[in-house]
Design goal:
By secondary structure, the protein is an alpha/beta fold. The protein folds into 3 domains: 2-112 and 119-212, Four Helix Bundle (Hemerythrin (Met), subunit A), CATH 1.20.120; 218-313, Elongation Factor Tu (Ef-tu), domain 3, CATH 2.40.30.10; 324-445, Rossmann fold. 50% of the residues lie in helices and 16% in strands. The protein is built from 16 helices and 11 strands. Helix 12 links the parallel strand 8 and strand 9 (387-392). Helix 1 (2-22) runs antiparallel to helix 2 (32-57) and helix 2 packs antiparallel against helix 8 (168-183). It is elongated and about 85 Å long.
């Protein structure tokens, strides 16, 4: 989480500093309208800069994943960059429109403009001729962006519609890129802020085109075929086993992949709930009926169906060098730990006495119970030599930090890996932080929310 905040604020601060270097006399403006012109430029640069980086992250690039802590963290940054872009776009709109409205209402009178010096640069002349078009397109596109980002943030908006409407932001971005190129102060383009803005616009434009061509992650997609389907009614979860082609590079326990069984629905992210072996090229997903898409999977999927798998992604891989670990899986958040247990069991079989995995206590907190599913979990835990502690809410009460510490006396030496509801994870994190655990280094939480 720290790196997400650092990246977000770093982007905004760097762009702001570069802009102030280009406009060092901004606070010496002799009238409100001079200040207004500067604020329109600053808010516009910040809005298009944030939106450009958000567009690049939409491509799911591999290079920042490790530093940010995984694609789930990258998507959190993508979300907050989108919100930041919206905030600065609103400020940009208010600075541009507000003074005109107030002047029209008679609150103040705009000073008369002096005669502008002739423009000799032919490129600047072209930009000036396009100014009216850029302003008009930018205003209406701004209204569209407000609606599109609002829909993206509304969790109850069905995913199948979100998938289609969210891609329209790429179209809106291309219009706003044109708006920015024409209306950014021409003198900026030869300064550091102009050069950085130009690079961001170029990268964002490339990303928008890739999104519109539906080529995001295309190089990491492989063909797969559903080989088994098992439904666990007690927990309303579907287990899907997929045989993947030789192009699948393998995965580490705890990683996830995007699976697409219906092109009109697009690809959905699922944690991989199985270990990996080249001799048996199969991966397993466990999906819980939580929304419009997952609630219909049981009726839509069938054995023999072809699917596309993209990945693997994520850094929730239990690789922190800590010899003592506590795993906490809340509800369907148990899935990465299933993969981890299968991986440990496979390593123990192959490497016999030479394999020294961390000592692990696994806590599974759930409000639902399915005897078959729990039996499989317990069998995986026994094969991996992991102590499993089951907490069913109605029977055992809620899992708390105190209860974990009572079962694991040497918790101070452990790292904690959590996957489950965000609020539950934050409560456990705060609890252990209050007890002195260095959570910034030893509390790992998957933020499995892609919108």
């Amino acid at each position: 989480m720290r790196n997400i905040k650092r990246a977000l604020w770093g982007i905004l601060v760097v762009l702001s500093v570069l802009w102030f270097l280009a406009e060092p006399t901004v606070y010496q403006a002799d009238n409100f309208f001079a200040l207004r012109g500067s604020m329109v430029q600053l808010s516009g640069v910040l809005a298009i800069g944030a939106m450009s980086v958000a567009m690049v992250l939409a491509l799911r690039p591999r290079w920042p994943e490790r530093w940010l802590g995984g694609l789930d963290k990258m998507y959190r940054l993508h979300k907050w960059l989108g919100i930041a872009a919206l905030v600065f776009a609103v400020l940009h709109w208010l600075w541009a429109k507000g003074p005109k409205w107030l002047g029209g209402l008679g609150f103040f009178t705009r000073p008369a403009r002096g005669e502008r010096p002739p423009i000799e640069n032919p490129v600047e002349q072209v930009f000036l001729s396009l100014r009216g078009t850029a302003e008009g397109l930018g205003e209406w596109t701004f209204y569209a962006i407000v609606v599109l980002i609002a829909l993206a943030l509304i969790k109850y908006f069905p995913y199948r519609y979100f998938y289609k409407t969210h891609r329209l932001i790429a179209v809106a971005y291309l219009v706003m890129a044109f708006h920015a190129v024409v209306l950014v102060k021409f003198a900026y383009w030869t300064t550091p802020v102009g050069i950085v803005t130009a690079l961001l616009l170029a990268a964002g434009t490339y990303a928008a085109v890739i999104v519109l061509l539906r080529r995001v992650g295309a190089a990491r997609q492989v063909e797969g075929e559903i080989v088994t389907l098992n439904y666990y009614p007690g927990v309303h979860a579907l287990e899907t086993e997929v045989a993947v082609s030789k192009e699948w590079p393998g995965h580490r326990p705890g990683q996830f992949a995007f699976a697409m069984s219906d092109r009109s629905e697009g690809a959905h992210p699922y944690t991989i709930a199985s270990g990996w072996g080249d001799s048996d090229r199969r991966i397993t997903f466990v999906t819980k009926e939580l929304g419009d898409h997952t609630g219909r999977l049981r009726e839509k999927l069938r054995v023999g169906q072809r699917v596309k798998i993209e990945g693997p992604y994520g850094c929730f891989d239990f690789d922190d060098g800590c010899p003592r670990q506590i795993w906490i899986g809340g509800g369907i958040g148990i899935t990465p730990f299933i993969a981890a247990m299968q991986h440990v069991a496979a390593e123990r079989r192959m490497r016999r006495g030479s394999y020294r995995p961390p000592e692990v206590d696994l806590f599974h907190a759930t409000s639902e119970y399915d005897e078959t599913a729990i039996a499989k979990l317990q069998a995986d835990a026994e094969a991996a030599g992991i102590r499993m502690h089951l907490f069913v809410d109605d029977r055992d009460g809620r899992l708390t930090g105190d209860r974990i510490r009572a079962i694991v006396p040497d918790w101070q030496n452990a790292s904690i890996w959590f996957c489950g509801p965000t609020g539950f994870g934050e409560a456990i994190r705060r609890d252990f932080a209050a007890q002195g655990l260095p959570v910034d280094e030893r509390f790992h939480q998957e933020l499995f929310e892609m919108r």
